[in-house]
Amino acid sequence: MTRDTSVVLHEVFGFTSFRGAQAAIVERTVAGEDSVVLMPTGGGKSLCYQLPALLRPGVGIVVSPLIALMHDQVEALRLLGVRAAYWNSTSSAEETAATRRAVQSGELDLLYVAPERLLLPSFLSVLQQVADDAGIALFAIDEAHCVSQWGHDFRPEYLRLAEITAHFPGVPRIALTATADPITRTEIFERLGLVGATEFVSSFDRPNIRYVVEEKNETRAQLLRFLESGDDGDSLRGEAGIVYCQSRKRTEEIAAWLREAGYDAIPYHAGMANDDRSAAQQRFRREDGVVVVATIAFGMGIDKPDVRFVAHVDLPKSLEGYYQETGRAGRDGEPAIAWMAYGLADVVQQRSFINGSGGSPEHRRVDQMKLDAMLGYAEASTCRRRILLAYFDEQSGDCGNCDTCLNPPELWDATVPAQKVLSAAIRTGQRFGAGHLIDVLLGKRTPKVEQWDHDQLPTFGVGADVSDREWRSVVRQLVARGMLSPDPARMGALVVTEAARPVLEGGAAVQLRRVQAPVARVKKPRTASGAAASAASPADSELFERLRTLRRELADADGVPAYVVLPDRTLWELVAARPASTADLLEVNGIGPVKAEKYGAQFLALLADTA
Question: Which cofactors are named for this entry (predicted)?
């Protein structure tokens, strides 16, 4: 790291050192080389292109698919004294003209644009003039996984971004994403024309996130119990969080229900008016304790660091999407929880989506592989984090911070029950769903059972020694293992697959996870400022709250989210260090000269008042 780099790192961003691979990435980009960066959410991706843009001559062009993210980052950069702007569809004619003049006259360090705008002939003409005059420092392609045609965030316009190399040869490019399985990684290199680029892969592990999966029973009651007890017996009421649902209607219903339960909950989905969606985003970004109930339309690019939980009330369609969505929790490094309720109906619904997608056979096959991986995670009897990281080709040991580590499931020999379920499916013509098969096994003479004379079958009543709930767990796990396949075209009728043959013929044993009660809440680990909070004296806690109040007032005055002023971690450092001068303030990590000048007097006055 050169002295210039370290000086800019501290004086602009307020940091005294890099994290992980940041230094190597910055060095390579400053040297004019191409890079592909895979770094988890909260790992510091933005610095990897923001800092080189300040160190190289010319303006750095940042390609981002999300207007909200552009606004967030430009606001934060301007507070650091960086000359940043965005050029997108929300800009007025006057703002667009001002931005054009600024970039053409070399007055910008960073310019954020959408991929659609980057390749417009008129915009390319502006960039060509800039390249000939002040120069272009770099092209940063954020959310690079949007190039993947297999992913749920696919953006067709990303496929053309490789064209910028032909227009501006010699300008370094850096593609960044927090989410990329092996298939997506290959696409990023190939489709963005980055085959010769250096790949930087940071650990995908987010150790501060606890992963918990529950058998879906009464979804709303389960969600409320989770919110009321968190993962350590403490309520999550008043904390920021996201609840993901599959349908727009469901987001509206659950948001309304949570409001009735006293939570500040708002819906978000693609069917809402643009103004309503924008208002929901602004509330979530700028206010404390807001819970957004959303479809997957919400989240990519959300930069809020203090999201304490992400809940899924429906099964995501892939581990890649699940990782990305849960990664929106705990960006500040503090303890957070990813909770999910999952049931067999979710599998039927996802299979129905795949079959009805209209995609090519190859596309449906990949989607099915992704769903199978998701099912394997949901039905895990071993460490969930190991399974999640292995999906991204990263090996790890047991984490000690997921439900299966904290409350290891009991395994039992379910060979005979599995044979009974499979036999019942075959004897009923593989035309019925789990509920009917379980009624047959339990010996229930329902109208449907009697209508089909299934009370006359040899399998009728042979499973009366196993509870309804346990049978549902057996069926679900057999589906996850590919021995039973629900047919969405026939309302989820369970079909016996070739994988079940060894079990039916008695040549293979089946070990399954025994159904459990909801996970007992265990005290969550404390990290960084979380440790400071747990060890704080009443006086320190009171000071922290006063600092938070001041931060909110300063943020409101500037029209920015509170975390843009200072994160909680830095507030706790202020509590611990009690700086008495500007020089002392600059020793606090996260406070550089620009923020010290802008906010230092107010924070120092408050600290002096409590000395």
Answer: Zn(2+); Mg(2+)
